[in-house]
TrEMBL record:
Substrates-to-products reaction catalysed: 5,6-dihydrouridine(20) in tRNA + NAD(+) = uridine(20) in tRNA + NADH + H(+); 5,6-dihydrouridine(20a) in tRNA + NAD(+) = uridine(20a) in tRNA + NADH + H(+); 5,6-dihydrouridine(20a) in tRNA + NADP(+) = uridine(20a) in tRNA + NADPH + H(+); 5,6-dihydrouridine(20) in tRNA + NADP(+) = uridine(20) in tRNA + NADPH + H(+)
Interacts with tRNA, annotated site positions: 104, 190, 193, 307, 310
TM helices/strands, residue ranges: none
Similarity section: Belongs to the Dus family. DusA subfamily.
Record flagged with keyword Lipid biosynthesis: no
EC numbers on record: 1.3.1.91
Catalytic residue positions: 107
Gene name linked to the record: dusA
Reported cofactor(s): FMN
Protein name listed in UniProt: tRNA-dihydrouridine(20/20a) synthase
Residues reported in the UniProt entry to bind FMN: 24-26, 77, 146, 178, 218-220, 240-241
UniProt entry tagged with the keyword tRNA-binding: yes
Organism listed in the record: Polaromonas eurypsychrophila
Length: 352
């Protein structure tokens, strides 16, 4: 019988809630991705994709806020700049059971700028403070802010120091700092994650100047050694794309950074639990398995045969199969050679 995952709360800990977290990533950290990441780590703090206030005020609240109870601790990231709208949406997030409300002051995309929120809000710290206070006044869960160290090519430490000082006075006690500037013109969101130089020292200086605040760092962190080095200076580390593309790394975090006992899980056991989840989602919500499987394509990153395994789980021609059959096919020897996939669902059944 398939062992059931242990989703019970990790229990009291002296370690800060933001010690390790997975960044909010548009089109990636949906509830299926977060369920997958929770299988790998019981302690890591998970974030939703950014949800705009407009989507909640005028759209389908359930579609945007529904999540699996197993995801806790999980934070809702909001995008907006109107205090009243943010207060309304923060209250919705609390009612739906989120453990934290986070305000996006770091996204540099032009679409977000047109909505007058994201990284461009850093130029208006008092407005951000008003937004934070409006949310703090109506919810009991923590309200946090994710931001950059600056905007455009200004390199003044005083800019980010004053931003944090103004916003913290409004009731925000936790700041997740992407250690790059956001260049609001001339760079794509992808380039904004790579081109502006990383300046970790500025984030360390923030912690020195605001020791009473929780300061976590984000940006360019891809190894356990880097995580450990940052935790010697700061309260937490947020990991983005490396956690998504190489998710098995998360399986080591509880033992390495939270003092937990080894989980004993394997890639295959996690994959099997995801298959169970896919089957449940299909029955309860009509979700095709491919919408879930796309998030675990990095699970066998670096292993022999991983390319063919990814090809099978990415093959939409197999969409009529039960995910358990797809898993069997993904682990079956290639019939012709490495990287060769079957050409039809019927062939898949025969091969499996």
């Amino acid at each position: 019988m398939q062992a059931q995952p242990d989703f019970s709360p990790p229990g009291p800990s002296h370690l800060p809630a933001h010690r390790l977290s997975v960044a909010p990533m548009m089109d990636w950290t949906d509830r299926h991705c977060r369920y997958f990441h929770r299988l790998l780590s019981r302690h890591v703090l998970l974030y939703t994709e950014m949800v705009t206030t407009g989507a909640l005020v005028h759209g389908d609240v359930a579609r945007h806020l529904r999540f699996n109870t197993e995801e806790h601790p999980v934070a809702l990231q909001l995008g907006g700049s109107e205090p009243a709208d943010l207060a309304h949406c923060a209250k919705l997030g609390e009612q739906w059971g989120y453990d934290e409300i986070n305000l996006n002051c770091g996204c540099p995309s032009e679409r977000v700028q047109r909505g007058a929120f994201g990284a461009c809000l850093m130029a208006e710290p008092q407005l951000v403070a008003d937004c934070v206070k409006a949310m703090v006044d109506v919810v009991d869960v923590p309200v946090t802010v994710k931001h950059r160290i600056g905007i455009d090519k200004g390199e003044s430490y005083e800019f980010v120091r004053d931003f944090v000082g103004t916003v913290s006075a409004a009731g925000c006690k936790t700041f997740i700092v992407h250690a790059r500037n956001a260049w609001l013109k001339g760079l794509s969101p992808k380039e904004n994650r790579e081109v502006p130089p990383l300046r970790y020292a500025l984030v360390h200086r923030l912690k020195q100047e605001f020791p009473e605040l929780t300061i976590a760092i984000n940006g360019g962190i891809t190894t356990g050694e880097q995580v450990a080095a940052q935790l010697r200076e700061l309260d937490g580390v947020m990991v983005g794309r490396e956690a998504y593309h190489n998710p098995w790394w998360l399986a080591s975090w509880d033992e390495a950074f939270f003092g937990a006992a080894p989980s004993g899980q394997t890639r295959e056991s996690v994959e099997s639990l995801m298959v169970d989840y896919m089957a449940t989602q299909a029955v309860e919500h009509g979700t095709p398995w491919s919408a879930v499987a796309r998030h675990m394509l990095g699970l066998r990153h670096g292993l022999p045969g991983s390319r063919r395994w990814r090809q099978v789980w990415s093959d939409h021609r197999l969409k009529t199969l039960h995910p358990r059959e797809v898993m069997a096919l993904a682990h079956a020897p290639a019939s012709v050679g490495e990287g060769v996939c079957v050409s039809s669902p019927d062939a898949a059944v025969a091969h499996a």
